[in-house]
Design goal:
heterodimer; A: about 425 residues; alpha/beta; 13 helices; globular; B: about 250 residues; six-stranded antiparallel β-sheet; five-stranded antiparallel β-sheet; about 30% strand
């Protein structure tokens, strides 16, 4: 294990030398699918893009990453920043299937993943299966391409594979981005996987918990909290959904967390539609009273400390052709990272002859944060703001904070039956 | 042959005398953890703390991957790490040599509180032999939890090195003790690093105490007599051979 960190850093250094991309003019992060372009009854992917290679620097070790100084983290940086040992020791999610739900279809998703893995030297054994839902779960994907959703899909798949390289990925592509068809895709995903990552959402509406039956069907379901700051989005507000917010993560030159603060875009707040589930009592209830508070947890999301993804010609032709693109973020990044963490924990549970985690993941997460254990199992984000300030304990920007992977896994693997 | 025996007797006598009259030197084992493990030390951990002290040669802790500054000297150091609240002790048992008039303790320590949870921090304690360092009352608190400042958020502390702390008054010559490095945390993870631990004892004087002179002199006389005996036996054997040779 100890030598593995060193090996990864060497790999990282070598691969960074290969990084030479086109220069982009824009210097501000923008959503790949603007909120204004999404009609009611449909969902928008939570991916943001901050292209600017003129001042592109490879975090770790940068004192600041902002609109003029873009940083990116390689998979090794994220592994190191978020507790390497545990990920390594859990065998990279071997034997576990991560379900990923997206809309539309990009026929280069698999080859883009292969290019991404080759670029970073990721040699996991996980496989990628891509299915559609029409007419039935497992059918061939729809043929409709959508550039914004294609970047989302690439982000989800590439990050899940980066942090759980031995986990299989079951990608379900909804026919379109309507809430009905995306829910059908989630239904398909939970039937074929052990944890489901969803990086999209939309405004809250009356009756938004109609998906409860799907989100409470025995498989942990994660959603991104949104990218427009202090706003709640559905389905993240569903009480059976683990809602993932976003952070800005700066690292030291040796890939340790130096500062992790709330990302300005991290969605969250108190739901206007959903009442607080019992497990949030004593956490969000002091802020949101009887309403469900989101997010539950948080992870890296700020595109200014984001990641690089591989975009093939389908996406890249709108930019500078096929290649690695930087810097990508959004709570769309935080969610597959967290799903990969759950896959690693599941693999460790299976190795300990225990069942994989189920729909009670939220209860377990809040139990893990109880009392004196909180600071062992969660990195309490207390700086930064999404419009809601990150403060000690649960807050509307980052929830309980960022899982301290090894210690939270120790609880979920060793203590939870 | 004769001269060899005589020399060895003299050397042996001198070593014997040195044991009482000169430096006893370093009396701890593996104080820098350069064996790459905790040989010479024992660990004790409170129940359900899911952690311990570990030998480490990296810039991060073995369980949680928490950043550290690495070893203070050499390649290895010891560091506590745990998944849950609790107390962890790293203990070495030693016997203060007879005749000790000076015992100087040196060590390097850091206390990291990277996630702001807080806790008691790190201590260096002296216990009676056989005491449970997790629960017993120490004979002396050599280094208290407030003596080493805890790190600030996210930033691992540098080593604090304590050199030649005089603990002579805490010890009785000929008695066995436990030297314990203790890490205790209750509201957030604390990583305590330990390195370059040394306990050097000496007589502190070139003149042996009067009470030691008599047995020392008696023993020296005994060995002098034995040496003469060896000589006589050797001479005897030699003369037999000579005699036979004369035949």
């Amino acid at each position: 294990m100890n030598s593995q960190r060193a090996a990864r850093l060497v790999l990282l250094s070598a691969s960074s030398l290969l990084f030479s991309q086109a220069i982009y003019a824009q210097a501000i992060a923008y959503p790949m699918v603007p909120k204004s372009s999404v009609t009611p009854g449909t969902y928008r992917p939570h991916i943001w893009f901050a292209p600017n290679s003129a001042n592109l620097v490879h975090d770790p070790g940068q004192p600041a990453c902002n609109s003029s100084n873009h940083c990116y983290l390689a998979p090794a940086d994220i592994l190191n920043g978020y507790a390497t040992n545990f990920i390594q020791n859990s065998n990279g999610g071997s034997g576990i299937t991560i379900g990923i739900v997206d809309a539309f279809y990009n026929n280069q998703t698999a080859s883009d993943l292969a290019s991404y893995s080759a670029y970073y030297g990721i040699t996991g054994t996980g496989t990628l299966t891509i299915v559609g839902t029409s007419p039935t779960c497992g059918s061939a994907p729809s043929a409709v391409f959508n550039a914004g959703w294609a970047t989302e899909t690439n982000l989800d798949v590439q990050m899940a594979h980066a942090l759980a390289p031995n986990a299989n990925i079951y990608l379900v592509t909804a026919t379109d981005n309507s809430d009905v068809n995306l829910l059908a895709a989630v239904t398909c995903a939970v039937a074929h996987s052990n944890v489901v990552s969803n990086s999209y959402g939309g405004g809250e509406y009356a009756g938004e918990t109609s998906g409860d039956g799907v989100y409470n069907s025995g498989v942990p379901v994660l959603f991104s909290s949104g990218d427009t700051g202090a706003v709640t989005e559905s389905p993240c507000t569903d009480p059976y959904v683990t809602c993932v917010g976003g952070t800005n993560l700066l690292e030291t030159a040796t890939s340790f967390r130096s500062v992790e603060s709330a990302w300005s875009g991290s969605g969250g707040g108190c739901s206007s539609q959903v009442t607080a589930p019992a497990f949030q009592s004593g956490y969000s209830t002091s802020v949101c009273s009887t309403a469900r508070g989101v997010p539950d947890i948080a992870a890296l999301a700020d595109p200014y400390t984001g990641v690089a993804n591989y975009w093939g010609s389908n996406i890249g032709s709108s930019y500078s052709g096929p290649g690695m693109y930087c810097c990508i973020g959004g709570t769309s990044l935080a969610t597959p990272l967290t799903a990969a963490l759950i896959a690693n924990i599941d693999a460790a549970r299976v190795a300990a002859s225990k069942a994989v985690l189920g729909s009670n993941l939220n209860q377990l997460i809040y139990q893990a944060a109880a009392g004196a254990y909180y600071h062992y199992r969660f990195y309490d984000v207390t700086t930064g703001s999404s419009g809601f300030a990150a403060v000690a304990g649960w807050d509307r920007a980052t929830g309980l904070g960022v899982p301290l992977s090894a210690a939270l896994a120790s609880y979920l693997v060793n203590i939870v039956p | 042959m004769k001269s060899t025996r005589r020399t060895s007797v003299i050397v042996f006598s001198c070593i014997f005398l040195l044991a009482f009259t000169a430096n006893a030197g370093q009396i701890l084992n593996n104080g820098g953890f350069e064996s790459g493990n905790l040989t010479g030390w024992v660990t004790a951990d409170s129940a359900a703390s899911y952690g311990s002290f570990y030998a480490d040669n990296q810039l991060y802790t073995p369980l949680n991957d928490n950043a550290t500054v690495g070893p203070q000297a050499g390649s290895w150091y010891a560091v506590s790490d745990a998944y849950a609240p609790g107390t962890h002790a790293l203990t070495q048992t030693f016997t203060d040599p007879l005749g000790t008039t000076s015992a100087l303790l040196s060590f390097s320590i850091f206390v990291n509180d990277l996630f702001g949870g807080g806790g008691t921090g790190g201590e260096v304690l002296l216990f009676a032999n056989g005491a449970n360092p997790l629960s017993a009352t120490p004979i002396a608190t050599l280094w208290g939890p407030t003596d080493t400042a805890e790190s600030s958020l996210n930033v691992p502390n540098a080593w604090v090195t304590v050199t030649n702390m005089n603990i002579t008054a805490d010890l009785t010559a000929g008695t066995t003790y436990e030297l314990s490095f203790l890490e205790s945390d209750s509201t957030g993870p604390i990583n305590v690093g330990v390195d370059s631990v040394s306990l050097v004892t000496s007589s502190g004087s070139s003149t042996p105490e009067p009470s030691m002179l008599i047995p020392t002199a008696l023993l020296a006389a005994f060995f002098a007599y034995r040496a003469r005996g060896f000589k006589r036996q050797s001479g005897g054997a030699s003369s037999v051979n000579s005699f036979g040779g004369n035949r």
